[in-house]
Design goal:
Number of domains: 2
Radius of gyration: 32 Å
Structural class: alpha+beta
Strand content: 15-25%
Shape: elongated
Number of strands: 9
Number of helices: 15
Strand order of the largest sheet: 2-3-7-4-6-5
Helix content: 40-55%
Distance between the termini: 35 Å
């Protein structure tokens, strides 16, 4: 079988560092450290990038799946909200719309009190703009109005835990005098509103919304607000990252004045930017770890060049060219880098696919929760593997290893046969 001489000798050097000589053992040890550094760096970077991808996915699909991409408000009491909903839903770039009445209030159970955002919804349209139905029982929305004497309310799990209430129990919701939940109303009540509700369901989305969101029927929210402010239309758009442009164009197209509102970049944009910035910073730090490990190959090859001066001189006297000597040591360093990044890539893929279950298992074993949704966006560690990230990490690690071989290989190609043989013999 044809084997190029530089690659053949380079691979022999890479695999023949287990001898009993002190220098050979030291070279073997340093080469092993370089490979371990590459393995750990590549694996860690893939896992970190997958976790950041997971947080990005949870923001887009879970948090922004429940909350709207944008909301249009108007403080006028004369708005026909179902008609406005249909008009908004037909606008370019909008995929669905639903009327909503939002009220900031306080929920109380005995001495326990917690703030919450009460949303009055239409069960027929809310499912078009929100995935909240995925976390509820099929009959939940109907239960909101099943008992006219005792209206129902749907609570997030975080709120229920703070108030220490369960499904079927009762609580009070207090809405202060000040204006509407959207921040732009004038308010029209002379006193605070108080209403009692029966808990018909508790949802657990695993997000920060579990600690702030409650759902009631549209008419109940309107009564809590005293008929003043807070009404609006929630919408979903086909291009989430272009929601602000679509939202502004929609406001300009509406026939009446007094419309205002916000899109998700105003409510959750800082979270999205924080995730992207964290991803970039952490990726940079881990990339530096890979770079350091890759350039450890330099010290390995320098020691090999020093140890093999005699062999290099003999090869030169036998007719080996400068290029062949250079490629010999490049082949050795490339093998170390290739094995390191391939094993690291494999471990990174395995880690990315199992890190969520692994962290969940550790939480169960030790009885602690590393992430809480009242502090972090979600209450578990998400992960989403992108094969493009794997290819990028493996390719960059191998390229850095290859670059690290150039200096020692150039030094080896400049060894003078006569001087080297004189020194050795």
């Amino acid at each position: 079988m044809f084997r190029p001489l530089p690659a053949f000798i380079g691979l022999r050097y890479a695999g023949a560092q287990r001898g009993g000589q002190d220098s050979a053992g030291l070279v073997s040890f340093i080469s092993g450290l370089s490979m371990i550094g590459l393995i750990l760096g590549a694996a860690l970077m893939i896992v970190v990038m997958s976790v950041m991808n997971g947080f990005d996915r949870e923001l887009r699909e879970r948090i922004l799946g429940i909350m709207p991409h944008a909301t249009v408000y108007n403080a006028s009491p004369d708005i026909d909200w179902p008609a406005l909903r249909d008009e908004v839903a037909a606008a370019p770039g909008v995929t669905a719309a639903a009327e909503v009445w939002q009220v900031n209030g306080l929920a109380r159970n005995g001495l326990e009190v917690t703030p919450l955002l009460v949303q009055g919804v239409n069960p027929d349209t809310i499912v078009d703009v929100s995935t909240i139905g995925n976390f509820l029982k099929p009959e939940t929305f109907a239960a909101l109005t099943s008992d006219p004497a005792q209206p129902g309310i749907i609570l997030g799990q975080g709120i229920a835990e703070k108030l220490e209430v369960a499904v079927g129990e009762h609580l009070s919701v207090i809405v202060p005098e000040s204006g509407d939940a959207s921040g732009g109303g004038t308010g029209g009540r002379s006193s605070a509103q108080l209403a009692g509700f029966r808990i018909v369901d508790i949802f657990h989305s695993g997000t920060e919304l579990d600690h702030s969101l409650a759902l009631v029927d549209w008419d109940q929210a309107k009564a809590l607000a005293g008929g003043a402010g807070g009404a609006g239309v929630q919408l979903r758009v086909d291009d989430m990252l272009n929601s602000f442009t679509i939202f502004r164009q929609l406001l300009n197209q509406l026939p009446h004045e007094g419309y205002y509102g916000s899109d998700w970049t105003g409510t959750h944009g800082n979270l999205y930017q924080a995730i992207q910035m964290s991803r970039n910073l952490v990726s940079l730090l881990v990339f530096l770890i890979i770079a350091i490990a890759a350039f450890n190959v330099v010290s390995t090859l320098v020691m090999v060049v020093i140890d093999k001066h005699g062999d290099i001189a003999i090869l030169r006297t036998m007719g080996a060219s400068t290029r062949e000597i250079l490629l010999t040591f490049v082949s050795q360093g490339a093998l170390v880098g290739l094995i390191g990044v391939l094993i690291g890539g494999l471990l990174g893929v395995i880690g990315s696919l199992t890190v969520t279950d692994l962290v969940s298992g550790l939480e169960s074993v030790f009885g602690i929760q590393f992430l809480k949704s009242d502090v972090y966006p979600v209450d578990y560690l998400p992960s989403q593997l992108h094969w493009g990230d794997v290819a990028l990490v493996v390719g960059a690690g191998f390229l850095l290893s290859l670059m690290a071989t150039l200096y020692p290989a150039l030094q080896a190609s400049r060894v003078q046969p006569a001087a080297a043989l004189r020194q050795d013999y």
